[in-house]
Amino acid sequence: MHFFVRQEIIDKPMLDLFPNLKVVQRYGVGVDNVNVEYANKRGIAVCNTPQYGQQNEVSNHAVALYLALSRRLLTRDEMSEQACGISAKPSQLPAVVTRLWG
Predict the structure, then answer these.
(1) N or C: which end of the chain has fewer CB within 10 A?
(2) Low-confidence ranges of the chain (pLDDT < 70)
(3) What confidence score (pLDDT) does residue 21 get?
(4) Longest dimension (CA), the chain
(5) What is this structure's pTM?
(6) pLDDT at site 51
(7) With the CA atoms of 90, 92, 97 and 100 taken in that order, what torsion angle do they form, in degrees rounded to the nearest 10?
């Protein structure tokens, strides 16, 4: 069995739930959310991905968050889930090209 985690806390109680666990792989820098000492005692390999997020991931995430906020995606998603909350006259979406970047 293999764990592939990012921010989840992998402590002793969590590791004890999986007696056949062989590897905990964290995608991200560091392994501070994993009880490495206990995992090593159990013979579980603990690995990370040190290059994760060093190219474009942070900027891509920032742009995605910007678009989600500027287009009010969460609000519109909630509206679409409620049949009576969908407006018959949709509001105008703000144009991204009018925004200042940087």
Answers:
(1) C
(2) 52-57, 81, 83-102
(3) 95
(4) 62
(5) 0.51
(6) 72
(7) -120
Question: What pLDDT is stored for residue 40 in this prediction?
Answer: 95
Q: In what order do the strands lie in the sheet with 23-26?
A: 2-5, 23-26, 45-48
Query: Could you give the CA distance from residue 102 to residue 98 in angstroms, rounded to a whole number?
Result: 13
Cβ-count burial of 30 within 10 angstroms (0-12 exposed, 13-18 middle, 19+ buried)? exposed
Question: Which residue is associated with the tokens 């994993």?
Answer: 34
**Three state DSSP letters for the chain:** CEEEECCCCECHHHHHCCCCCCEEEECCCCCCCECHHHHHHCCCEEEECCCCCCCCHHHHHHHHHHHHHHCCHHHHHHHHHCHHHCCCCCCCCCCHHHCCCC
